[in-house]
Design goal:
By secondary structure, the chain is α/β, with parallel strands linked by helices. It contains 56 helices and 58 strands.
Length: 2042
């Protein structure tokens, strides 16, 4: 068949196929026949065999037609006159030959390919043309679309739609029919030289252009198994009769190319779909076969209007359409078009976007005839038709227009689906085209056909259908753009699951349709009618012989008035007039659909106004009278009057007055006029209390506490309430919040300087609900946060004071907000936390909100310039529904989001919670268990009655009808449950629903079972305040007339009013809560714990009110079904969220597909396999707490009220009566319990067991997974104990019994056994806490016959009743397995950024979900973030804004309150540091009482200092493990240094000290003053530094030393250069005579290693602003990291050879460099003419952990007092010492809290060892060097040698330095590791040395360090005579080495004129010679006397020098040596080991 016939049907098969199709449609209700269109026209790939023959796909076959008619000879159309007919040229005369165009620059449109055309007349040449790549096959010969689209590359003419036309244009001159398969032969490409050459041949063989699929019989076209049709349900808005089941289908549009991670797996180009077994998948409603429609491709139609091109359809859409107007695809569902409301309540569409009237979809058509709406349309038809604009302009409506509604929502959906290709324009040329108009209309028809009779169309479903159809028609092109793109946002890429079908689309429509042909306008009406024929009269298509939309609308109105559309829900009008664009519209004519759509057009505020109008105008009067009538049973009012007369309890008001006032809602006025609820039931208003002898008492009227005689038994031991306990998961969230705050502070952006704040303050913003306000105040007051922040006791803070920190966001909030801003501006050192709780409530822009509305206040505050720019205000948004704050314009960084973590991972309790959270996910799980009554359900009988009344009263809003019906049900249920009408002939049960009766019975009987009358709460949610007020009055009236006022309370929950309850119930609560305050009244719903009550909660939406744990029923049957946003739905369901006792919950099943509704931190759900496994194992969620059971709390008996119609009402009444008798006679039977322990453990909700059983029972068994069914779970009771039980007892058990006992068929239930009296629990079990409010106590602990229903209830979540419509939406799933509502628009204030978006994935984490919304939603114009867009920036996040999200009622308030507390503690902690606080050691018991200097002496005097004895003893406690230095006058303590008790566990004692303002800081400190000093100020360029080499020579090193200085530009003035930027010459030094109050003369050197972050190098505050020269001395390998963290500090880089050296090398080089620099400075001064000797010779050697400095002040009364001073003051005081030049070394005392206490005389100056902070005179100490090899005790060694050289050492005791404990880095960190591995190994000290030339494990550690460590740890063996022998020390010559704490060392210097202690008469126990030089002679050693057997140790650098030393010193004369006494350090030869020799004295 030729291409020109491609659009025609195969006529030979048409008759047969149509016949079979009609027959199968008539016969089939379950198996859905395929429409004939899909069999004839748009078939997918053909099967090879058909009727036993194989089709031939050769070229020969292609020449003929597929019909049986003879082939038609082909004749060329004659060319136009005057055109070119030359071969190789086009008709315009342009050359097309490849040889001519090979080098030309050809303009190829996007999506087109260059192709070589074979011409019969030019066998050796190819003609060049451009062809749309979609019409060409791929390399396998597949996926080519039918038809043709090409351009001429000669003349440039474009848009040839037929190959016939194109072949004529290029002069092919064919004798046969032109076929692209024959003549498009080769691909063309450019080679390396840019020349166009012939490429690979086009592969036409595998897949011809006429893809045919011919079934062997029509049955092959039917869906015969679930595998063929995984999900056929059309929509996720199903409304089916009981028994039907609808599964959401896989609607999953593909994401943009840059967001797709892994392409879906393909099989033959089609999606592979795993088979999913679903019940009843093949019908969407009873008797409504689902039609399977064709999958028409979205390619260019073959007969489209001229001018269509790949670019034109997208560009024809006006630009403003792309920005998604509010009524376009951004709407979540049909309800979101908000029209204006006319006074009479009827609406015409007035809010269509401006772009709707223009553009490609709605061209300005010529003036059409107007359409007259018939009069009395609403009255005649009892419906108000809704007209959906489609394509084209809707004609003007005249006449009775108020009876018709017009919506542009469908038109907006069409527009948005045609803007899709714009998504791809950013990624280069694209061949992707939008859906055609015809395809959109046909898909719309298919969608409507699939809808059930009670279903309402959802625009989002239709939108997803368009997306899937479009995506799969361009699958190959889309994949080309998916591969190279990178994700645009961090986190997981949003890959697209390979889902199979769309909602409402047949299965085969989802197959790749590249081979399908475009849909033409002429085919559209016929195909649409064919599709509609499968659903009977449900959808009517008017399309034939229609010339205009006006004609179609007139026909529709005529049929409506004639009653011909009674069974028709939708009329689709299609106009396909020749020469015009296709036009369409949809008229909704179904009564249910019209009502739902009409009501959805109201905005929430308009809906509330409509309710008030209908109530105030009396429209509801007739409805109320109708509901009051009970038919043959009379009416409600007369029965109530009789009940009141019978009980002789007259009412103050007459019955007629009450009837007129209470019965009808018409007199209900605005909330301002309503009386307080207290007035209705105050004790003085009613005399209807039950008397003691009243017969109604036994009928169910409970007695008042006042009527009872108080007795000790009237208390309930199981009742305990506690609100202030912080749960472990709340602690974890608080810490996560704190870590995010610290991350902001630690970031380089400098947006938060935590170090600059000294306290925390806060303000909590809550919605304008008085209950929410008081609830937050209660949490705040009881949390202790105010005490922690204010430092006061709990008793000092009242709740009134706590109210100062919480603000209700209403008109009164402005003053408090202004005060807060002013306070934050003044107190810059206070960090203010602004908590925006319930943050999704008010996100309105202040500019778009009226002052009266109360909205926009949050925007006015949070986004004001004062708050945004205040550096000390941190904003925390807290919400359960963060979606509205996660848009493209959000102000919150994704890195600043904190999501509530999942408490369970793989059923492991991560936080050891006592409770488990039961939220929306678990509610949905309960609907899937299938084995019991779900917790969330709908009331079918209520729905039926409401539906009947909606048809009867078409003018009333459904909310008014449903509320009236529901309240009537409650009234009748109260009458039935009261027991007053049992003896009468009235059968009240049939006039209420079973669900309502169960609720009321349970409410009335619950309090009777508890001695304290504890009951439960019933929540009745009525959004309209007017309806809620009427409902409250009505129920209160009925309660009063029934005498039930004392049984339960009825509370009206009005957000704008405070909570109010009756006085008697207040007294009850005070007794239960043990409240002593006489004026106390409950202010929150939480305080109503255990109060039996009905709470009527009003308000457009819940405002964050928490409900008590006694909530048992959550009645949401009258909430609105119109506003289908995710936030709205989840917010209502969140009212039932609950914390359940962990012991009573089953193992947490994460297999639900609904977990995305909960804000879990990690995976929101697991895989389907886990879900199935959980259900197989009986791991189903808990059901409601005995719904419809008489026991334990009373109620109905029907185990399945959801299908209540299956039981006759009479039978139900009889069962109810019998059950109530059973309750009274045997209350213990109703609590029958399983005796075998193993069985009770397998129950998700075990019945309460005695305490002793629970204590002996392993707790792990409660949490264990139920065993598989194949394993026995319990031992059945012996048969003899099993007795038949009535149904009531079976119903009384928790539902999992049906699972657990299913394998034991004979035993229904074990016989109930009474439990023994449980012993009283220990006190530890009675600690009150909210999370353990129902501890594991037996409910019979107080009485064997009574049990507290409240105590049982707290371990069971509440039951939820929903409207049927919402139930069907919520329980349906989309293609990803998530609940359908998750794909709805997240919030009314946001819009979808594009219709082209993927669905949320089931495996997304909360972070990925946030990124999804951040990409795919934009705020509407009235959103407060709508103006948050800065040009040129990809984001505009506020740096100090956090978002905490978590499920409702999970504990977010407690978490952020705890966060405030730990943040305050952290700020205090930041201002505190751990300071070493150790008392000096080694003080002698005998001290001279001589005072050398007066205490007030400012400076030491050299003469006095020389007379002061030098203290050889080391007193620094860090050296408590080294050898004592021998001092003749020192007498050590016999017991040694005392070990304090706290030091047993702590290595060194520390104290927490608050930082003073003069502290030194590490790199984490950021403040405004430090920024320039640190070089991190973002306003300045990063400081540039230069590297300078500095070389000097030293005799000891024997070679030149080259050091490097890194000098920042800002510090170059401290140095002198040969020329600017030239060679570094010296470091400038001041003169001794120089003095400046703001200058420190001494350069400060700080050697450091491993502490680039933690070293205290920021001396800005310590120096108090004084200029100073600070040099960091670093090792070469650490140079870069130190430079990174301290860019504005001068670095002195040690040579490479010192990378492994110790602290001695650093100090050695510093000292030698300083002396060399001193000489250079003196030379420079001499050259300048100044005195050489006046250069300042001092330097400071400071440790990198010196944090603060103190000075001692003398107080006459209190003695010496220490105070914090700056380092500047310390140094200036020391530098000002008049005789400072006489001292070689000065230092200060180390701080200790005990330093100024004790009896020791305090000398202001002393001579002794100095550590950590030194002032060194490099001039005087020129000849005394630090030992460059030393790792330990180098300062002790240096001080001893300095003193022996005769230099004065002075310690200023009036100053002290505090050292911070830094656990990281430092020179004392030694790592001993082997040469074999870099991993530190445990090598003992004995292995540090070895015998020379032995095979030993060599260590990769410096030899000097090994030697020092060896001597420290093994000196007891080396010097055995010296151990603990102070009087016989080891003589150490010229050096001090640590020989361990038990050995005493006597230091002597061999230098001439040195100062040594007197050794006369001293016997030494050993001799230590280390690197002895020439000053050590034999004569020098002969001065000393040694004990016999004393040890000698000689240490040298190598063996030869060791022998030379022994010979030179003639040691062998007095010492005996052995060959085995020579050792070396365990170093390899290349590491230059040290050698030592030991010997014994002869």
């Amino acid at each position: 068949m030729g291409n020109s016939y491609a659009g025609q049907l195969r006529t030979t098969r048409l008759e047969d196929v149509l016949h079979n199709f009609i027959e199968s449609s008539l016969r089939s209700n379950t198996v859905v026949p395929r429409p004939v269109f899909s069999q004839l026209y748009l078939e997918t790939e053909q099967s090879a065999a058909h009727d036993g023959r194989v089709e031939n796909d050769d070229d020969d076959d292609e020449d003929g037609s597929e019909s049986n008619s003879p082939p038609v000879p082909y004749q060329m159309k004659p060319p136009p006159e005057g055109c070119c007919t030359t071969d190789g040229f086009c008709q315009a005369g342009r050359d097309l030959r490849l040889s001519s165009l090979a080098s030309d620059n050809l303009d190829v449109p996007p999506g087109f390919l260059l192709v070589g055309v074979k011409s019969p007349s030019l066998p050796d040449a190819l003609l060049v043309c451009a062809v749309d790549r979609r019409f060409l096959p791929d390399e396998r010969g597949r996926n080519a679309l039918l038809g043709f689209s090409g351009n001429c590359m000669g003349c440039g003419e474009k848009d040839f739609r037929y190959f016939t036309e194109f072949s004529n244009h290029i002069n092919l001159k064919l004798s046969t029919q032109p076929k692209k398969q024959k003549h498009l032969k080769y691909h063309l490409y450019r080679n390396n030289q840019g020349v166009l050459v012939k490429g690979a041949p086009i592969c036409w063989r595998g897949h011809d252009g006429r893809v045919r699929q011919m079934g062997s019989s029509l049955s092959e076209g039917h869906v015969t198994s679930d595998e063929h049709l995984p999900n056929l349900a059309l929509t996720t808005h199903p409304a089916h009769t009981p028994g039907s089941y609808t599964v959401g289908s896989h609607a999953d549009p593909i994401g943009p190319p840059h967001m797709v991670d892994v392409p879906p797996p393909l099989t033959n180009g089609s999606h592979t779909v795993p088979p999913i077994s679903q019940p009843s998948l093949n019908h969407s409603g009873p008797g409504r076969p689902s039609t399977i429609g064709p999958h028409v491709n979205a390619g260019p139609p073959k007969k489209r209007h001229k001018g269509w091109s790949p670019e034109s359809s997208a560009s024809a859409v006006p630009e403003n359409i792309m920005k998604t107007p509010p009524t376009s695809s951004s709407s979540s569902a049909l309800p979101l078009s908000l029209p204006s409301v006319t006074p009479n309540g009827n609406r015409l569409e007035a809010t269509a976007p401006a772009s709707v009237s223009q553009g490609s979809l709605t061209p300005q058509s010529p003036l059409e005839l107007s359409v007259t709406v018939p009069d009395q349309l609403l009255t005649t038809c009892r419906l108000q038709p809704v007209i959906f604009k489609g394509h084209g302009s809707l004609p003007q409506l005249t006449g009775n227009v108020s009876d018709v509604l017009v919506s542009s929502l469908l038109q907006s959906c069409y527009l948005s689906s045609q803007t899709l290709p714009r998504v791809y324009q950013h990624y280069g040329p694209s061949p992707i085209q939008p859906l055609s108009t015809e395809m959109q209309i046909l898909l719309t028809v298919y969608y409507l056909v699939q809808l059930g009779p009670d279903q309402v169309p959802l625009i989002e479903d239709l939108e997803q259908i368009f997306m899937r159809s479009w995506r799969e028609s361009h699958l190959s092109e889309i994949r080309q753009y998916q591969q190279p793109q990178t994700p645009a946002a961090p986190g997981r890429h949003y890959g697209i699951e390979p889902s199979s079908t769309l909602p409402g689309l047949p299965q085969h429509l989802s197959l790749p349709p590249q081979s399908q042909q475009p849909l033409t306008p002429s085919q559209l009406p016929w195909l649409a009618q064919l599709a509609a024929s499968s659903c009977g009269e449900g959808v009517l298509v008017l399309g034939e012989q229609l010339g205009s939309l006006a004609q179609g609308l007139n026909q529709t109105f005529s049929r409506l008035m004639e009653g011909r559309l009674l069974n028709t829900n939708y009329v689709v009008v299609i106009v396909t007039a020749p020469g015009q664009e296709t036009q369409s519209c949809v008229v909704v004519t179904g009564k249910h659909q019209c009502r739902a759509l009409a009501e959805s057009m109201y905005s929430p505020s308009e809906g509330l106004r409509e309710f008030n109008h209908q109530l105030s105008s009396g429209l509801a009067q007739e409805l109320n009278q109708y509901c009051n009538s009970l038919g043959p049973d009379g009416d409600v009012e007369s029965l109530l009057d009789n009940a009141a007369v019978d009980s002789s309890q007259s009412s103050p008001l007459s019955s007629s007055q009450e009837s007129a006032e209470e019965r009808s809602p018409k007199n209900t006025h605005s909330p301002k006029n309503t009386h307080s609820p207290k007035d209705t039931h105050s004790p003085t208003n009613s005399n209807t209390h039950c008397s003691k002898d009243s017969p109604s008492r036994k009928d169910g009227c409970t007695s008042s506490p006042k009527d009872r005689t108080p007795s000790p038994k009237d208390t309930c031991s199981e009742y305990r309430v506690e609100w202030c306990e912080v749960r472990p998961i709340q602690l974890a969230v608080a810490r996560k919040l704190l870590s995010h705050v610290c991350a902001i502070a630690d970031s380089s952006t400098q947006n938060l300087d935590l170090g600059s704040f000294d306290r925390v303050s806060f303000l909590i913003l809550v919605p304008p609900s008085k209950v929410t306000f008081q609830q937050t105040v209660l949490h705040l007051w009881s949390s202790g946060v105010l005490q922690e922040l204010g430092g006061v006791d709990q008793d000092c803070v009242s709740q009134r004071e706590a109210e100062h920190y919480v603000v209700k966001m209403d008109q009164t909030a402005q003053a408090r907000i202004d005060e807060f801003i002013q306070e934050a501006h003044i107190n810059t050192y206070t960090l203010y936390i602004l908590v925006h709780d319930h943050a999704h409530w008010d996100i309105s822009s202040a500019a778009c909100s009226s002052p009266d509305s109360g909205l926009g206040l949050v925007d006015q505050l949070l986004n004001s310039r004062q708050v945004r720019e205040a550096p000390n205000i941190l904003t925390l948004h807290v919400t359960s529904f963060p979606f509205a704050l996660q848009t493209q314009y959000t102000r919150i960084s994704p890195y600043n989001e904190i999501h509530w973590p999942s408490a369970f991972s793989n059923d492991v309790d991560l936080y050891h919670e006592k409770t488990r959270y039961f939220g929306v996910s678990e509610l949905l799980e309960s609907t899937r268990s299938g084995s019991s009554l779900p917790l969330m359900r709908y009331d079918s009988s209520f729905e039926s009655m409401a539906s009947v009344l909606e048809e009867r009263f078409p003018k009333l809003h459904s909310a008014v009808i449903r509320t009236t019906v529901l309240i009537q049900h409650y009234c009748v249920a109260l009458m039935a449950a009261s027991g007053r009408f049992k003896g009468s002939h009235h059968d009240l049960h049939k006039h209420t629903s079973v669900e309502t009766l169960e609720i009321v019975q349970s409410l009335l009987t619950a309090a009777q079972r508890c001695p304290a009358h504890h009951g439960h709460m019933v929540l009745l949610r009525i959004p309209s305040l007017a309806l809620a007020t009427w409902a409250h009055r009505r129920l209160s009236n009925v309660r009063r007339r029934l005498g039930l006022e004392e049984s339960f309370e009825i509370i009206l929950g009005n957000p704008s009013q405070a909570l109010s309850i009756g006085q008697r119930f207040t007294e009850q609560l005070k007794t239960w809560l043990k409240v002593q305050d006489a004026d106390w009244v409950p202010r929150t719903y939480l305080e109503l714990e255990a109060l039996p009550c009905i709470l009527i909660l009003s308000g457009a939406e819940p405002l964050g009110e928490s409900l008590p744990r006694s909530l048992k029923y959550c009645d949401l049957r009258v909430i609105s079904s119109s506003y289908l946003q995710r936030t709205t739905l989840e917010q209502e369901l969140g009212l039932a969220a609950y914390l359940v006792r962990a012991e009573s919950r089953p193992p947490h099943n994460t297999g639900s597909g609904s977990d995305l509704l909960e804000s879990d931190a990690d995976k929101l759900s697991s895989t389907d396999n886990e879900e199935e496994d959980g259900q197989e194992n009986g791991d189903s969620p808990p059901s409601s707490s005995q719904p419809l059971q008489s026991c334990p709390d009373g109620g109905g008996l029907d185990p399945s009220p959801g299908h209540s119609t299956t039981f006759p009402n009479t039978q139900r009444a009889a069962m109810d009566a019998s059950s109530s008798q059973t309750q009274i006679q045997s209350p213990s039977q109703s609590q029958s319990q399983l005796q075998p322990e193993p069985l009770s453990q397998s129950l998700p909700y075990p019945q309460p067991t005695p305490q002793h059983q629970l204590q002996t029972q392993p707790q792990t068994q409660i949490f264990c997974q139920p065993q598989p069914v194949s394993q026995p779970q319990a031992q059945p009771q012996p048969q003899s104990q099993v007795h038949p039980q009535p149904l009531s007892h079976a119903a009384s058990q928790p539902y999992p019994l049906s699972q657990t006992l299913s394998q034991y068929q004979p035993q229904i239930l074990p016989h109930p056994q009474p439990h023994p009296q449980a012993p009283p629990p220990p006190p530890s079990h009675r600690r009150p806490s909210k999370s353990t409010s129902s501890d594991s106590l037996s409910p019979r602990a107080s009485s064997p016959h009574q049990s507290c229903s409240w105590a049982r209830g707290v371990s069971r979540p509440p039951s939820v009743l929903l409207p049927r419509v919402l139930y069907d939406i919520i329980t349906a799933s989309d293609s990803s397995g998530l609940p359908r509502c998750t794909s709805f628009l997240p919030h009314m204030s946001v819009a979808w950024a594009s219709s082209f978006r993927p669905l949320l994935s089931k495996m997304m984490t909360c972070t990925e979900q946030s990124l999804y919304y951040r990409q795919w939603t934009v705020p509407r114009s009235y959103h407060m973030d709508s103006n948050n867009r800065t040009e040129g920036r990809s984001d505009n996040f506020h740096p100090r804004r956090l978002l905490l999200s978590g499920p409702g009622q999970v504990g977010k308030t407690g978490a952020y309150l705890h966060f405030l507390g730990i943040l305050s503690r952290m700020l205090i902690r930041l201002m505190e540091v751990d300071i070493y606080d150790e008392e000096d050691i080694n003080y002698s018991a005998q001290l001279e009482g001589v005072q050398y200097h007066p205490l007030s002496a400012p400076w030491p005097k050299p003469d006095i200092m020389r007379t002061l004895p030098f203290d050889y003893t080391i007193h620094d406690p860090k050296y408590d493990d080294i050898s004592t230095v021998y001092c003749p006058g020192h007498k050590p303590c016999a017991e040694g240094n005392p070990v304090r008790q706290e030091d047993v566990y702590l290595r060194r004692r520390t104290s927490r000290i608050k930082l003073s303002k003069y502290a030194a800081y590490n790199t984490y400190h950021h403040c405004e003053q430090c920024h320039q000093y640190m070089g991190f100020n973002p306003r300045y360029q990063m400081y540039e530094s230069t590297l300078h080499a500095f070389t000097f020579s030293h005799l000891l090193l024997g070679e030149e030393i080259q050091l490097y200085f890194i000098i920042p530009k800002s510090k170059e003035h401290y140095f002198s250069f040969s020329q600017p930027g030239g060679q570094l010459e010296s470091m400038r030094l001041p003169l001794t005579s120089d003095w400046s109050p703001d200058c420190i003369k001494s350069p400060i050197f700080t050697p450091t290693t491993g502490r680039h972050e933690h070293g205290l190098f920021n001396l800005y505050h310590a120096m108090d602003g004084a200029s100073h020269l600070h040099i960091l001395v670093v090792k070469e390998y650490e140079m870069a990291v130190y430079k990174k963290y301290w860019p504005n500090h001068i670095m002195l880089v040690l040579p490479t050879v010192f990378n492994g050296a110790g602290i001695g090398a650093a100090h050695f080089l510093i000292k030698e460099l300083s002396y060399h620099n001193l000489e250079l400075e003196r030379s420079r001064r001499l050259e300048g003419g100044g005195p050489a000797g006046d250069v300042w010779p001092f330097i400071i050697l400071a440790d990198d952990s010196c944090v603060m400095w103190n000075a001692v002040d003398l107080d006459a009364r209190s003695g010496p007092v220490e105070r914090a001073v700056s380092l500047k003051q310390v140094l200036q005081h020391m530098e000002a010492c008049p005789d400072l030049a006489h001292y070689g070394l000065c230092g200060i005392r180390k701080w200790s809290s005990r330093g100024l206490r004790g009896n020791r005389p305090r000398e202001p100056f002393s001579r002794g060892h100095l550590h950590d902070f030194l002032l060194l005179n490099v001039d005087l100490s020129q000849n005394v060097q630090y030992d460059q090899n030393r790792f330990t005790c180098h300062d002790v060694d240096f001080t001893l040698r300095l003193h022996s050289a005769g230099l004065l050492v002075c310690r200023f005791n009036n100053f002290s330095v505090m050292k911070k404990q830094i656990a990281i880095g430092g020179y004392r960190t030694f790592i001993i590791k082997t040469k074999m591995t870099d991993v530190p190994t445990s090598v003992g000290p004995s292995q540090y040395v070895c015998a020379p030339d032995s095979k030993h494990l060599f260590l990769a550690t410096p030899a000097q360090l090994l030697l020092e460590k060896y001597l420290q740890h093994t000196s007891q063996r080396l010097f055995p005579l010296s151990t603990k022998n102070y009087t016989h020390p080891v003589l150490s010559v010229d050096c001090y080495l640590n020989l361990g704490p038990e050995v005493t060392v006597c230091f002597v210097s061999s230098r001439p004129h040195s100062i040594n202690i007197s050794t006369t008469g001293l016997l030494f126990s050993g001799l230590l010679l280390c690197f002895s030089d020439s000053f050590v002679t034999p004569g020098f050693l002969k001065k000393f006397t040694f004990l016999k057997g004393a040890t000698l140790c000689v240490i040298s650098a190598d063996r030869s020098s060791l022998r030379q030393t022994v010979g030179r010193l003639e040691l062998e004369e007095e010492w005996r040596f052995r060959l085995s006494d020579e050792f070396q350090t365990a170093n390899a030869k290349e590491d230059r080991p040290l050698f030592f020799l030991t010997g014994k004295h002869i």
